[in-house]
Amino acid sequence: MTALTLSTAGAATLRADALVVGVAKGPKGPVVAPGAEAVDKAFDGKLASVLDALGASGADGEVTKLPAPAGLKVPVVLAVGLGGVPAEDESYDEDALRRAAGAAARALNGAKKAAFALPLEDASAVTAVAEGALLGAYSFTAYQGGDKKDKNDAPKGPLAEVALLGAKPRDKEHKAAAERAKIVATEVNVARDLINTPPNDLTPEAFAAVAQATGKELGLKVQVLDEKALLKGGYGGLMGVGKGSENPPRLVKVSYTHPKAQKSLAFVGKGITYDSGGISLKPAGHNETMKCDMSGAAAVFSAVVAVAKLGLEVNVTGWLALAENMPSGSATRPGDVLRMYSGKTVEVLNTDAEGRLVLADALTKASEENPDAIVDVATLTGAMVLALGNRTFGIMANDDAFRTAIHEIAEEVGEASWPMPLPADLRKGMDSPTADIANMGERMGGGLVAGLFLQEFVGEGITWAHLDIAGPAFHEGAPYGYTPKGGTGSAVRTLVRLAERTATGDLG
Ligand code: BES
Ligand code: MN
Ligand code: ZN
Q1: What is the pTM of this model?
Q2: Cα–Cα 20 to 30 A to 329, which of 188, 312, 341, 372?
């Protein structure tokens, strides 16, 4: 991954391949942002007018490359747009900084070293710029450059080194902010790698092996239930979904504990390594990106690892409900009834509503340990994408205050989310003549129906929230800000911040 350093060097003296400066969108044209004074000086104070002449406005995400004037020790200056100029008594919005740093890092793909001279007013700005740069520098090239005869075919690596200018390496807060950003960005990128890995390679077994290897490295306890143990244990949801595949299901438990912890959290992730729909097969056009259906499990895994690396004073258990949803002679049929781990029976009306089945077992299992709260993360429904679009995840919960807290935390870390209800009247749509409940209900409000289904498997009295990340988990369009094409690592930052807040008892 990209290396990150805090540098005391001045913008005019540091040697690098590029120098990144911020430019805001002022009422009368572009305005050079604080942090870039020395660079502006090297342009004889004319950087803003040069940018204006080049047609740059300072709009969010805009990238302008300029040849550096004499006096700077870099060949290129890269001006990145920050959007509007903040009011007199306000500083630059953290996510605007994160996005700008991301856009700049992305534009410097293949470069060795870039110095970032963006406005760093306080430690949270350091976190934002560092995270943005490290997230924007991400690229997934593991499967490219296969033709060894053609050297030009080799993929460009990400920007190798980011030096933050204006951050204070001896300031405790700045140092901690940079360390935190490194850990969080690394783990978001790990989640992205897992999501982007093709489903022929990332099977439930392979995902479990990654968890075991990482757990060993970090001293985390990792327990894996394989298909034999799942069958014996009565995990009808996981087994029912996994039955049609040559790649059997797994339930992985990753535990992090801190000796001084007062609170415990359980994170539960949907880990469908490929969702074909099963016998209720998805049509072409709806299955090409379904390797992303384990994004919830990836987010949960990465978040637990980040919490461990941060050494937070809270116990966090991650549950990865891993299965591949495939059609075959051994697959679950629409009409089959499954006996879940909780004992409840479920009539499977649509084998494409598989996420709720694997999550149900994991939620019951997680509830047995009576954690202070459970949060599940899942690419659960197309309905949530229709409701909230491609960049916003939905939050449902059995506790209003908890739902609000998660919404605020997500906002704080720069993840778009919106609170959604669990209307009780939608429950009757899942009534089944043969079983306790069906895995499908009314089509209208499908995301909320799925949430209501999950709620039935949460232990009595346990605070629970459900994040439906089907929209933001996988980005199919052109990259923007710090968001690449493909897996985004959605929800990792929210889960980590929730753990931090839980550790400090500051949950609002
Ligand atoms: N994995 C899908 C949901 C999904 C859709 C994720 C688009 C990411 C992008 C889920 O398993 C699914 O197929 N849900 C069905 C449920 C329906 C059959 C009740 C859906 O949303 O159509
Ligand atoms: Mn499905
Ligand atoms: Zn699915």
Answers
A1: 0.98
A2: 341
